[in-house]
């Protein structure tokens, strides 16, 4: 294999260290005046300093940027149809999330619209959302079903995710969330719906290899712990990775119980308790936290990021991009909220949207890092230093996005403030650009 090299990197964040390392530069695997190589298979082949580049190497000069791994959004609901702005207005007027759901709003409203949408419409609606995530530096995205809530409609959602994977440069991880809520037609026969999911839907999705994980929303108004464990156990037996929406609105114990089954992640966790944290740590289950959700819903509870990190649990940060409780696609802003809302350090937050995000998706191929053998998925920024990435709240720091070493997106040169006087203009063209 031949290697193409990238040089002209002020700061390269390889993310090779541990989030718990109290020396941020070591935690981030920081290399200054850096360079790295990408082989023809789209993987990192070499990492080092510019002075150690092989003589005569074919290079692209990135002109003094910061480089870090492409971001990983480990929890989204990006495929859906319909509009929830009326729900938002009702919450602003004082109605609770639960009150809106009880009168037919919330998830049920989106289910109705999604069921009416064709496969082509679902793809067309989701594509701009994924493009916006990409423009914020997100190269790997978990996408859940969960707005179909029938065998036919859930499969159509998963088919839409598969088509989106084919059409875009992004890397998608599909998750079956048929156990989002009990649909209206099964309201008086919950057991029959769980039977359908376990006996019909899960085997069909496994047969067609349409999903990597199975997920369940275990909370008040959704699924009980017993129902959750039945679905997850069947998913495990069929070879799916396990995920769970847990402890978001109330405490159910689902995070600890799912961890005991070998769940790859437990997500939300605003009401998690110490016993659950111990169970997750023992099992190696990641936490996926979404601080923008609580803020958008006006909730007071915060997931205990510090307790999770202290227990040695990898903590990912995700958008939860969805039509009701969090429509944002701004993962860098979520990293800022990880610091200001959840008490994470800047280096921990950057791990949360790179390496720890990849762990929460069960991606064990080096994703979320820029180390030899890892996918060459990386982003560039023209901010003065890495510290500015979580500090610039609401700012999109991304200049260029590369996936498998291929240049897939260039944003217009962002306004970065004081550094405009000290940084060179970004070059107009880079080798390897796609149309």
Keywords:
16 helices, 35% helix, TIM Barrel, single chain, alpha/beta, globular, Urease, subunit C, domain 1, 2 domains, 435 residues, 7-stranded mixed β-sheet, 8-stranded parallel β-sheet
What does this structure look like?
- With 435 residues, the chain is α/β, with parallel strands linked by helices.
- The protein folds into two domains: 122 residues, Roll (Urease, subunit C, domain 1); 286 residues, Metal-dependent hydrolases (TIM Barrel, Alpha-Beta Barrel).
- Helix content is 35%, strand content 22%.
- The chain has 16 helices and 15 strands.
- The strands form two sheets. It has an eight-stranded parallel sheet.
- Strand 14 and strand 15 form a beta hairpin.
- Helix 5 packs across helix 6 and helix 13 packs across helix 14.
- The longest helix has 19 residues.
- It is globular and about 70 Å long.
- It starts with a strand and ends in a 25-residue tail after the last strand.
- The C terminus is likely disordered.
Tell me the name of the CATH homologous superfamily of the largest domain: Metal-dependent hydrolases
Under the CATH scheme, the architecture of the largest domain is: Alpha-Beta Barrel
Give the count of helical stretches. 16
- Physical arrangement of strands within the biggest beta sheet: 5-6-7-8-9-10-11-12
Radius of gyration: 21 Å
Domain count: 2
Oligomer: single chain
Count of DSSP strands? 15
> What distance lies between the first and last C-alpha atoms, to the nearest angstrom?
25 Å
The best one-word shape is globular
CATH class of the largest domain: Alpha Beta
Query: What is the structural class?
Result: alpha/beta
Stated plainly, the CATH topology of the largest domain is called TIM Barrel
Please report which band the strand proportion falls in: under 5%, 5-15%, 15-25%, 25-35%, 35-45% or over 45%: 15-25%
What's the pLDDT, averaged over the residues? 94
């Amino acid at each position: 294999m031949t290697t193409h090299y990238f040089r002209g990197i002020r700061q390269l964040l390889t993310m090779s260290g541990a989030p718990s390392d109290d020396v941020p530069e070591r935690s981030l695997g920081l290399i200054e005046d850096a360079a790295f190589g990408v082989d023809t298979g789209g993987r990192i082949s070499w990492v080092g300093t510019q002075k150690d580049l092989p003589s005569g190497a074919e290079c692209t000069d990135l002109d003094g940027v910061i480089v870090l791994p492409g971001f990983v959004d480990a929890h989204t609901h990006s495929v859906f149809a319909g509009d929830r702005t009326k729900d938002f207005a009702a919450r602003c007027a004082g109605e609770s999330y639960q009150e809106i759901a009880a009168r037919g709003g919330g998830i049920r409203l989106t289910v109705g619209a999604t069921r009416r949408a064709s496969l082509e419409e679902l793809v067309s609606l989701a594509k701009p959302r994924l493009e916006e995530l990409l423009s914020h530096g997100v190269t790997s995205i978990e996408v859940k079903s969960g707005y179909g809530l029938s065998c036919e409609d859930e499969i159509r959602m998963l088919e839409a995710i598969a088509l989106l994977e084919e059409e875009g440069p992004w890397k998608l991880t599909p998750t079956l969330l048929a156990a989002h809520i009990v649909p209206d037609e099964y309201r008086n026969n919950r057991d029959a719906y769980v039977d359908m999911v376990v006996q019909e839907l899960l085997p069909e999705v496994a047969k067609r290899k349409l999903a990597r994980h199975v997920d369940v929303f275990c909370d008040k108004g959704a699924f009980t712990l017993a129902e959750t464990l039945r679905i997850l156990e069947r998913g495990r037996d069929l070879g799916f990775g396990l995920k769970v929406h847990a402890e978001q609105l109330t405490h159910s114990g689902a995070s600890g119980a799912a961890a005991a089954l070998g769940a790859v992640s437990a997500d939300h966790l605003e009401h998690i308790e110490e016993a659950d944290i111990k169970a997750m740590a023992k099992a190696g289950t990641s936490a996926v936290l979404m601080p923008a959700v609580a803020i958008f819903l006006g909730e007071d509870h915060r997931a205990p990021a510090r307790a999770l990190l202290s227990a040695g649990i990898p903590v990912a940060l995700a958008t939860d991009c969805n039509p009701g409780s969090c429509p944002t696609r701004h993962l860098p802003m979520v990293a800022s909220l990880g610091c200001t809302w959840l008490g994470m350090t800047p280096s921990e937050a950057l791990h949360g949207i790179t390496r720890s995000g990849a762990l929460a998706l069960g991606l064990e191929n080096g994703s979320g890092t820029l180390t030899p053998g890892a996918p060459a998925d990386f982003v560039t920024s023209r901010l003065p230093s890495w510290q500015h990435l979580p500090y610039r709240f609401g700012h999109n720091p991304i200049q260029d996005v590369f996936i498998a070493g291929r240049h897939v997106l260039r944003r217009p040169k962002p306004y970065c403030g004081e550094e405009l006087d000290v940084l060179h203009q970004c070059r107009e063209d880079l080798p390897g650009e796609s149309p």
